[in-house]
Amino acid sequence: EAGVAQSPRYKIIEKRQSVAFWCNPISGHATLYWYQQILGQGPKLLIQFQNNGVVDDSQLPKDRFSAERLKGVDSTLKIQPAKLEDSAVYLCASSLNRGARETQYFGPGTRLLVL
Amino acid sequence: AQSVTQLDSQVPVFEEAPVELRCNYSSSVSVYLFWYVQYPNQGLQLLLKYLSGSTLVESINGFEAEFNKSQTSFHLRKPSVHISDTAEYFCAVSRDSGGYQKVTFGIGTKLQVIP
After folding, report:
1. Mean per-residue pLDDT, B103-109
2. Cα(A92)–Cα(B97) distance, rounded to whole angstroms?
């Protein structure tokens, strides 16, 4: 089966610009996650979707970050305007079901550099 | 709340030598434990997980981890490492949160296998 797809793989922007990342999860996976991984740290959850509904966005900086999963399949994460501290790898993951025992399947990530 | 501690940020080891990557966690509720591996320029992928039953779990490529509830640890071991094991290893704890998965990752341990 095809894995989690993400694009672009790399992005360089200047501060105050906007940027969008796209994720297509594994077919049939109902749960989708966006993580931010800053250099030297573990992935930090930004937002979690169950189908097209938001389950957890408690750590999403909502003044500048937004995400959607309109049809319950692919998802877009946007940053507007970007700050220097947003430089990180943005990981998308999906799981078949929503329970605590589930394995998450990760995409290759989008590496963002904000200058 | 839950937390994960990976005390070693980098572990250099010679090829064919044994290795242990340490992981300690804290949680006020029951958790499930995971080790994910991230090879260069790739996303995270599941290495092994403890859900229930035998406290010793194994991966297909020779790694094993033992769940120790009294010491709140889930250390990862391999008796003889290969060059191909060079990667970053993340310990993660997962708990139920309103029927959904709540995962916390450690900061990761970079395993460098020296020829």
Report:
1. 96
2. 20
d(CA B21, CA B108): 10
Average pLDDT over residues B11-38: 95
DSSP 3-state assignment of A34?
strand
Judging contacts by C-beta atoms under 8 Å, the chain A residues touching residue B44 are 43, 91, 93, 104, 106
Nearest CA in chain A to B104: A44
Residue in A41, A101, A107 closest to B51 by CB: A101
Mean pLDDT in residue range B51-76: 93
Taking the C-alpha atoms of A27, B38, B98 and B6 in order, what is their torsion angle to the nearest 10 degrees?
Answer: 170
Which of B100, B105, B107 is the closest to A98 by Cβ? B100
Question: How do the domains of chain A map onto residue ranges?
Answer: 5-87
pLDDT tens, residue by residue, B5-24: 999 999 999 999 999 999 99
- Residue B60 is classified by DSSP as T
Q: List the Cα angle B93/B1/A43 in 5-degree steps.
A: 50
Question: Which residues in chain A are contacts of B51 at CB distance < 8 A?
Answer: 101
Q: Which domains does chain B have, with CATH numbers?
A: 2-114 (2.60.40.10)
**Cβ–Cβ below 8 Å for A106 and B44:** yes
CATH class of A5-87: mainly beta
